[in-house]
Write a sequence for this structure.
């Protein structure tokens, strides 16, 4: 029987982000009344499944965000009450009533999730600090470039077969994607940016990827950014400023020297839109003109840490991420949620 046009108009579709084990993310639409398993299948994504009746438990995933109903037809052997209370779901039973983020515990190949490729044209290249560029791309198909704030893509260096990972500093849905890139002497992407990059150059990237993305903000939240680790944090703040939050959000942005500081007017503008946002800058160089000298850990107070009743998002170079982890461990602080991303140098291929 064919669908009546008015049925289609009244159908509500929710956006589901499926994060597979190896970090790739694919977005699908799921209609009200449809199971996530069926919606994924409709989008040519094979989520793990066996019985599809709520009996075997093969399709067990974790819902990280969103509202849903599992009904009462699945059996306890497939999903225990304890698992359900912790956000585990059977996607063969799961019907959603909001946008959701679901972690799928198998790799891309097992789900036939092909990496999504996107393209755009360089609309500006701006040197914003001694060794930092903002690269902006006018996207070919902005609606298709869906990502969660904080995620990254693999950007191909034009004229080469090499790619490097960069986090969006722009927010999802924008017609331009922006990236904050620190250059390394002799680096492949760095050299291209400093010498060859030109407005109008076509670029391509694969993604989005990664589990470093903003979750629901329902307790005090600390954002720690080291250097260009500010990029994903800016994307998160853009989304938070749009959504609004009652929770206190504290950003500490650390750099090596004053010449590395970027994005301050943008942070000020975000703070004006998000009244619960407080922020501090610290500079490791002892000669800094900034009021706060030292590393981010030196400016992370017990008040911010709230005896562990806080969520922390941390992004920066590997050494900085490890320093913060050691700091929290030594202070015996276990944040309720601790998400981090290390900007690990790529192994040049
Ligand atoms: C998930 C992820 C997200 C990332 N997001 C960002 C981002 O948003 N912004 C950003 O600026 N960077 C980001 N990076 C780092 C980025 O992918 C590149 O590694 C960096 O830009 C250098 O690339 P390149 O081609 O210029 O240098 P390459 O050609 O990769 O490196 C040249 C040489 O420099 C070394 N090298 C590379 N990086 C460093 C470093 N930091 N310190 C010391 N030596 C180094 C390499 O080992 C190599 O020997 C991210 C990395 C990861 C893993």
């Amino acid at each position: 029987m064919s669908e009546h046009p008015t049925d289609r108009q009244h159908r509500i579709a929710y956006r589901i982000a499926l994060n597979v084990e190896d970090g790739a993310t694919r977005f699908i639409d799921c209609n009200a009344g449809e199971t996530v398993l069926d919606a994924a299948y409709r989008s040519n994504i094979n989520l793990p499944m066996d019985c599809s009746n709520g009996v075997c438990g093969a399709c067990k995933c974790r819902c990280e965000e969103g509202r849903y109903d599992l009904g009462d037809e699945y059996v306890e052997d497939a999903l225990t009450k304890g698992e359900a209370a912790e956000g585990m779901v059977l996607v063969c039973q799961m019907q959603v009533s909001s946008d959701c983020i679901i972690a799928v515990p198998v790799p891309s190949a097992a789900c036939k999730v092909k990496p999504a490729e996107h393209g755009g044209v360089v609309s500006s290249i701006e040197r914003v600090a001694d060794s930092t560029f903002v690269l902006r791309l006018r996207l070919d198909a902005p609606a298709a470039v869906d990502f969660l704030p904080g995620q990254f893509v693999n950007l191909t260096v034009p004229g080469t077969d090499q790619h490097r990972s960069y986090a969006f500093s722009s927010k999802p849905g924008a017609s331009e994607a922006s990236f904050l890139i620190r250059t390394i002497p002799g680096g492949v992407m760095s050299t291209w940016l400093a010498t060859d990059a030109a407005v109008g150059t076509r670029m391509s990237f694969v993604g989005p990827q990664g589990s470093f993305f903003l979750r629901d903000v329902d307790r005090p939240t600390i954002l720690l950014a080291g250097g260009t680790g500010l990029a994903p944090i800016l994307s998160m703040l853009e989304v938070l400023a749009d959504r609004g939050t009652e929770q206190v959000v504290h950003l500490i942005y650390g750099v090596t020297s004053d010449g590395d500081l970027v994005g301050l007017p943008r942070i000020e503008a975000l703070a004006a839109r998000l009244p619960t946002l407080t922020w501090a800058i610290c500079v490791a160089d002892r000669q800094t003109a900034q009021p706060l000298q030292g590393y981010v850990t030196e400016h992370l107070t017990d008040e911010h840490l709230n005896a562990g009743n806080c969520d922390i998002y941390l992004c920066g170079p590997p050494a900085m991420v490890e320093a913060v982890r050691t700091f929290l461990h030594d202070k015996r602080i276990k944040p309720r949620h601790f998400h981090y991303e290390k900007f690990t140098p790529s192994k040049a291929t």
User: Anything to note?
Assistant: The pocket of flavin-adenine dinucleotide is lined by residues 152, 164-167, 179-182, 184, 186-190, 210, 228, 231, 317, 341, 343-346, 348 (CB under 6 Å). The chain has three domains: 5-111, 117-209, 221-342. The CA atoms of residues 151 and 262 lie 20 Å apart.
